[in-house]
Amino acid sequence: MVEGIGNTRRLLIVGLAFTAIMLNYVDRQIIALLKPMLQGEFGWSDRDYSHMASAFQFCAAVAFLGTGWFIDRIGLRRGFAIGVGAWSLAGMAHAFVGSVGGFVGVRAALGAAESIGTPAQVKTAATYFPPEQRSLMLGVGNMASNFGAVVAPLTIPALALWLGWRAAFLIAGGLGLLWVVAWLFVTPRTSRTPGAPGAADGDRGASVPWTALLRDRRQWAVIAAKALSDQVWWFLLFFMPDLFHRMFGMSQGSLGVPIAMIYFLAALGSLSGGILPTYLLRRGMDVNRARKGSMLLYACLILPVPLVLLTGDPWVAAGLLGLGLFAHQGFSTNVFAMTADIFPSRMIGTAIGIGAFAGNLSGMGMIELAGWSLDNGHGYTPLLLICGGSYLVALLLIHLLVPKLVVAEPGIAKVAPTGH
């Protein structure tokens, strides 16, 4: 942890990290919110649009393998600034393209650049806060994606109607560039002791060997947790509106309120995922029991999600799915915190980047499974059953791979043995 900085500056850093992730989600949603307007102007087909979405998702998945290493290698302060600057410029570039190929290209660039957000968010908590405070900070940070999911539909369409669709991309990207200036101004250049573990830029050093991490049971615990939980998030993110339309006959105009309620509950889940283990740690519980106990609670809370198949009331379904995303965000917050706990600071970005890569790929697989299931008349039944049981399986694998979570010794980057 960086020492010698006050609580006020730490809170400013948390606020800036929150804002960056919120802008991340706003930037990625603009094209979906403006799809009808852009299709009318450029004559896109639905297949053209799917190519743009696929380009974003694939490039984000691949980039996760490098962005975590990048943050670890050059330091959080500069690395986060470069990442936000890059995705802001990629977002602004949308205003200057007019062909399908051009939009595919800028979406690919945006996806690759935005992948830096996840490892940077986790590393911010590990760098500036002690273990007993990280869960709360990660919970607050994890809420940012949900706020982005709410802010974008409330602002972007109105902005595009007022100033034009190009202005929407330029203004959102411009806010990101202003964020870079604020981040560089607020964050310290180094810790009080140069080269101390977790320093904002002083934590950079020799690259972390992937081969060593992939022999480490801790890394496979993170991979399993991200793969089995992220697949649920990506599935619901892309298919929740269609689910309400197919199952309850809701029109696009009537979907907004129940979906907004679901994401509001997800935001509360992020916050609870920080508060609960923080409370347990302060009561004297060790990290292993606090983390795994919290994850067990969230894994049980998501079990009722398949009951959506049995209800004819869309508001009951919204409550069940809201509870599911509440549980997902609480579980996810503890996965991030677990990674920050068990890996030394200089390895965290790489470790979470590899895990996020697995999560994105599993999400792509779940999306393809959803298309197959719907096309073949199976509906949402197999998908919601997977959602309900996925988190208990993830926690079981975490426990089998790392029977006891232990906070990493500051500055020690030893790789855990491959045996129990």
Structure explained in plain terms:
The protein has about 425 residues and is mostly helical. It folds into 2 domains: about 190 residues, MFS general substrate transporter like domains (Growth Hormone, Chain: A), CATH 1.20.1250.20; about 200 residues, Growth Hormone, Chain: A. Helices cover about 75% and strands about 0% of the residues. It is built from 15 helices and no strands. Helix 1 packs parallel to helix 4 and helix 6 packs across helix 13. It is globular and about 60 Å long. The C terminus is likely disordered.
The overall number of domains is 2
Record field, number of beta strands:
0
Q: Overall 3D geometry?
A: globular
CATH class of the largest domain: Mainly Alpha
Name the average pLDDT. 83
- Alpha-carbon distance between the two ends: 29 Å
- Main structural class: mainly alpha
Task: Please tell me the CATH architecture of the largest domain by its name.
Answer: Up-down Bundle
Q: Strand percentage, roughly?
A: under 5%
> Can you write the helix and strand succession as a string?
HHHHHHHHHHHHHHH
Transmembrane segments: 52-71, 168-186, 220-240, 260-281, 293-309, 315-336, 348-367, 379-402
Protein name: D-galactonate transporter
Membrane topology: Multi-pass membrane protein
Main location: membrane
Q: What's the SSE blueprint?
A:
Blueprint: H1 7-33, H2 35-42, H3 46-74, H4 76-93, H5 100-114, H6 117-128, H7 131-163, H8 165-186, H9 210-213, H10 217-248, H11 256-282, H12 287-301, H13 314-342, H14 345-375, H15 381-401
InterPro entries: MFS, MFS_dom, MFS_Na/Anion_cotransporter, MFS_trans_sf
Keywords: Membrane, Transmembrane, Transmembrane helix
GO molecular function, one term: hexuronate transmembrane transporter activity
